[in-house]
Amino acid sequence: MNEPPMKTHAAITAVHGYVPEFKLSNQVLETMVETSDAWITERTGIKERRIQTGKDQGLSVMAVEAVKGLLEKRGIGPEEIDLMIVATVTPDRVFPATANIICDAIGAKNAWGFDLMAACSGFLYALTTGSQFIENGTHKKVVIVGGDKMSSIIDYEDRTTCIIFGDGCGAVLLEPTTEDNGVMDSILRSDGSGCQHLHQKAGGSMRPSNERTVERKEHYVYQEGKAVFKFAVINMADVSAEIMEKNGLTADDVAWLVPHQANKRIIDATANRMGLDDSKVMVNIEKYGNTTSGTIPLCLWEWESKLKKGDNLILSAFGGGFTWGAIWLKWAYGK
After folding, report:
1. How many domains does the chain have?
2. Known catalytic residue: 120?
3. Which residue in 41, 121, 241, 269 has the most C-beta neighbors within 10 A?
4. Which residue out of 9, 16, 103, 120 is catalytically annotated?
């Protein structure tokens, strides 16, 4: 009797990140807008954020560094990459895709690629999408980049948004495995009615750029904080608990929650809903703020040395759109 074929999973085999050197602290923000370090820390958990400075410094500059570090860790050349997916809301240009710019910059001559936009849930959407190409056997090495240069679309006279966001980028390499690890399951959701609460007013085809849109500051992030917080704190927590229940996982089974770093109170609510102790939650929001698509891969990068092969990770996010979701991932390498 023939054995059934082994199921192929998409396993993360390397991770790397990059953040700019310049730090924008709460103390400096106090001199720019009417706010305080105490208020920002209490409401968000953020103490500082990184800002990318310099002329012609787009997302691709950060992403190239993250991907180069990724390839060096894995010991492979750029020509081995089959596909690159970049999750971002701040691409270098409207077109071509930032994925193509990155591939050209690093010499990934055999890769095709595209950008994916799902706001703060972008990395989860991209990771799930890239996994399909591994699982169906058509691709062997897929790079998923999550990053944003949020400083390029933030009004530093708007205290409701400028305290939250920062710049940063992370990347992971997906490869096939028949072992019991990798991306095991995902739940992704969206609700377009949330657009009214969190969006960028101008710059798209509905409201193209012109002098009036610039004067009205319509190219910056617009956010109704209370409404977004209410949706995020419920949905991010619920979907994280849902993926655990769906797969029969208990709090004891989960080694780490890897949450989107939007707000410490949302992270705490999600961990509480899952029944997890703080010691199992990755939190670096105090250093980097909300880097949108970059938060989850940056957490994986910072905690990489603590991850063990077979660890159950729950990746969870909520973003504008609204978009949200969770991924159950079994870590594929480590002690």
Report:
1. 2
2. yes
3. 121
4. 120
